[in-house]
Each structure stands twice: as C-alpha cells, then as structure tokens.
Description:
4 helices, alpha+beta
Amino acid sequence: MFYTNCNGLTNKIDHLKTVLSAEQFHVACFCESKLDMTIFDEEIALKNFELFRSDRKSSKGGGSCVYVSNSLITERVTDFNVEDCIAVKIQIMDQVIILIVIYRSPSLAIDRSIHLIDSLNSFVESIPRDYKIVLAGDLNLPDVNWNDGVVSAPVNSHNSYLNMQSHFLYTLQVNGLKKKKKKKKKKK
Length: 188
C-alpha cells in the first residue's frame, strides 16, 4: 500500500503512473487531492486501477482518493460519508479489509472535528469484528505525540483522536516526515 498527502493530484498524475507501475502497489491512497467536480475520473484514471474519490464540496482544497488494483474485489463503503474522507471495502482471498482514508484540515472547526470523530467511531463500531481496519490519512494534529499518547496543546478535541486509536488493529506511525519550517532571517 502506498500513501501520501499529495497536495494536489492532477499535476502529479504522470509521476504517479510511473511510481505505481515500478513499485507494483495494489492500493494507493491520497489526501489533500484537491479534486472537484470539474475534474473527471477519466482525467486522473490509472490503467488497471479503480478510482474511489471524495472531493471537498464546501470549498477548494482537501479531499481524499484511493486507487485499487483491478485484481482485487472492491466496493465503496457508503455508510461512512464524511467530507474529505473515503472508505473502501477490499477483499483479499478470505479476508475483508476496510480502508479508511481521512484528510482533516488543520483549520477544521472544533464542531466539525468532533463530528468527524463521532462519525468515524460510529462507523468503526458498525464494522463486523472479523474485518480488518486500516486507517490512513493526514489528521493534522501537530500537538499530538502519537508514540506516547500525549497532547501538548490546551484541552481540545485532540484527546478524542488518541482515544479513537483503540478501535484499530494497527496504528501506522510515520515519524520525521513533517515539513520543516524555514527560519526567518533576522533583519540587521
């Protein structure tokens, strides 16, 4: 499985084709795809892959999409319908995997953030116990230390995201991939 926050997919589609064919990924997940209804599936289609997408409708930016190899049995899960998020059911032999891809904007209002958490928790609770759940995405929670389960910011909804981890079979942690802020040069 391949995952990245692509910060816009349309201008990277040729590179994506190269990466997916060279590395032989069966699933590719993208957050902040920045797709909208003016971009047709055919414009971003990949040979031998089915596309699932969730475009932001309320404003520009955001969005998530998933490409799954045609060799796998898949279907979009419509029970989880949250802006910028998508869920796909993938069957591999006798195992069913629910792949959930989330993009949470860093400027998401607290009420919408709580709605996202509540929707995700309700959805996960409804999934049969013998299914595996994979969560990928960009939660944009810089004040959360996922390794230690500590929130360094003032009390807010970030604690709810930490509590949510107990629902998932695996927690994927990627360290050291954050963009470093450029230091401003001091004026002399």
